[in-house]
């Protein structure tokens, strides 16, 4: 365990980097991968989804989804080449806040869930939500020039991105239904869709949620609370200085983390400690190798507005839409308080897997959610008492601790 001064130093270091990176906002002049290779960046951190999966013997396809409101999302389909026949129906796997599809590969072929699910011969589609580096495009708006591009939060991701991704996959595969796995924001936005888009909720035969983010009332992480609350309070001020996008890939904060974390000798000491302080300590769960790779793909970028909404969600006991303040709420919603999402509309058979040591989505909030859903098949606490939030994508214990339960439900709702 690092000493107290060490820990303080790390917090300071990472905070300063993050704040500087976003206040300055500047995208660095793109640093070429050749140059990074010569500096000793791990190869996996420099590859995109297609290249990375190919590197480990998987074939993947790139697909483009256009949402009703014009956002252009890149999604991937990944296949284990040895599968002669894929199970039906298709499966969608959706990442969490500030991540991209690549998060499901970062832990490597023995632990990344995209690999494990493909290995079991499911027809796996890996999504990307608006604003990250694979979905930073629009039919009309330019993300670098039009601030309107960044006027979205989980509310709009649930309203548009999730249904568009589902529609695309169903149409392409000519299936009537699919199975859906959502992690954190990738699960919360499915719930939002169920509430707001009648007819969509039951397009999945089963919804498997991993640390689902609905309300965040009991979130324990102080750095996460602090960060999102500061952003929430400064959203308008940031807008006047032209800052609408945050934690983008290629920004100073992401490049700095990637640079810092590439050194194997200090990756665990600094990056591991920083990650643990943000979430919680789970010694040995994320390997040094993975720690060196993560920050090539994380943070993947989102809107200030979305981060602000998370700040709000820690100040209320409701799972509700963005709070614009009484006056604007009245104009937008017709009431002073933002409307709550209708959890009775989440009629899809629902499974939850979550950790008791999760400091970002607290088990108390998951229990609150589960108690309000009409069709819960199973809600399981991961057997390892130290299981935390980021373990879902980055732990090397996924194969033993969460994959078997995911596979159990996928199998039950699939045909071979
Ligand atoms: C991934 O990298 C390959 C090879 O460099 C490139 O052709 C492809 O367009 C990239 N895909 C995305 C979505 O960036
Ligand atoms: C990871 O790196 C740290 C610091 O160099 C080292 O103490 C630790 O033993 C390494 N862990 C593993 C699992 O190799
Ligand atoms: C919530 O959803 C349920 C199930 O679809 C529906 O019966 C109910 O009317 C909805 N409630 C509101 C307030 O919209």
UniProtKB/TrEMBL annotation:
<dbReference type="InterPro" id="IPR029058">
    <property type="entry name" value="AB_hydrolase_fold"/>
</dbReference>
<comment type="similarity">
    <text>Belongs to the AB hydrolase superfamily. Lipase family.</text>
</comment>
<keyword id="KW-0325">Glycoprotein</keyword>
<keyword id="KW-0732">Signal</keyword>
<protein>
    <recommendedName>
        <fullName>Lipase</fullName>
    </recommendedName>
</protein>
<feature type="active site" description="Nucleophile">
    <location>
        <position position="184"/>
    </location>
</feature>
<feature type="active site" description="Charge relay system">
    <location>
        <position position="358"/>
    </location>
</feature>
<dbReference type="InterPro" id="IPR006693">
    <property type="entry name" value="AB_hydrolase_lipase"/>
</dbReference>
<keyword id="KW-0443">Lipid metabolism</keyword>
<keyword id="KW-0442">Lipid degradation</keyword>
<keyword id="KW-0378">Hydrolase</keyword>
<feature type="active site" description="Charge relay system">
    <location>
        <position position="389"/>
    </location>
</feature>
<dbReference type="InterPro" id="IPR025483">
    <property type="entry name" value="Lipase_euk"/>
</dbReference>
<dbReference type="GO" id="GO:0016788">
    <property type="term" value="F:hydrolase activity, acting on ester bonds"/>
</dbReference>
<feature type="domain" description="Partial AB-hydrolase lipase">
    <location>
        <begin position="50"/>
        <end position="105"/>
    </location>
</feature>
<dbReference type="GO" id="GO:0016042">
    <property type="term" value="P:lipid catabolic process"/>
</dbReference>
<dbReference type="Pfam" id="PF04083">
    <property type="entry name" value="Abhydro_lipase"/>
</dbReference>
């Amino acid at each position: 365990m690092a000493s107290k001064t060490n820990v303080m130093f790390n917090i300071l270091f990472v905070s300063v980097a993050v704040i500087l990176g976003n206040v300055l906002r500047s995208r660095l002049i793109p640093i070429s991968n050749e140059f990074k290779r010569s500096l000793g960046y791990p190869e996996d951190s420099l590859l995109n989804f297609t290249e990375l999966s190919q590197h480990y013997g998987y074939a993947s396809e790139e697909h483009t989804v256009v949402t009703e409101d014009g956002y252009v999302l890149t999604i991937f389909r990944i296949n284990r080449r040895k599968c002669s026949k894929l199970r039906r129906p298709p499966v969608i796997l959706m990442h969490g806040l500030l991540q991209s599809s690549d998060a499901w590969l970062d832990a490597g072929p023995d632990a990344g869930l995209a690999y494990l699910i493909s290995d079991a011969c499911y027809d796996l589609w890996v999504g990307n939500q608006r604003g990250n580096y694979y979905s930073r495009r629009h039919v009309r708006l330019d993300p670098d020039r039009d601030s309107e591009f960044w006027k979205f939060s989980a509310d709009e991701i649930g309203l548009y991105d999730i249904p568009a991704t589902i529609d695309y996959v169903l149409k392409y595969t000519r299936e009537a239904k699919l199975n859906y796995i959502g992690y954190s924001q990738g699960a919360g936005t499915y719930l939002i869709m169920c509430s707001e888009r009648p007819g969509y909720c039951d397009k999945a035969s089963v919804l498997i949620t991993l640390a689902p983010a609905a309300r965040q009332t009991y979130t324990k992480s102080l750095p996460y609370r602090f960060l999102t609350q500061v952003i929430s309070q400064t959203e308008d001020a940031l807008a006047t200085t032209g800052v609408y996008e945050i934690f983008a890939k290629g920004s100073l904060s992401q490049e700095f983390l990637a640079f810092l974390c590439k050194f194997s000798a200090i990756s665990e000491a600094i990056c591991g400690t920083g990650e643990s302080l943000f979430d919680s300590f789970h010694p040995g769960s994320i390997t040094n190798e993975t720690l060196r790779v993560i920050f090539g793909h994380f943070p993947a970028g989102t809107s200030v507005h979305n981060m602000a909404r998370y700040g709000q969600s820690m100040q209320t006991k409701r799972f509700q839409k963005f709070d614009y303040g009484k006056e604007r709420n009245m104009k937008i919603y017709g009431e002073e308080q933002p409307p709550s999402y209708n959890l009775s509309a989440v009629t899809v058979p629902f499974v939850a897997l979550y950790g008791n040591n999760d400091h970002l989505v607290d088990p108390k909030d998951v229990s609150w959610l589960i108690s309000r859903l009409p069709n819960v098949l199973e809600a399981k606490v991961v057997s390892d008492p130290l299981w935390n939030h980021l373990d879902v994508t980055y732990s090397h214990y996924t194969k033993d601790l969460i994959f078997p339960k995911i596979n159990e439900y996928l199998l039950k709702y699939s045909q071979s």
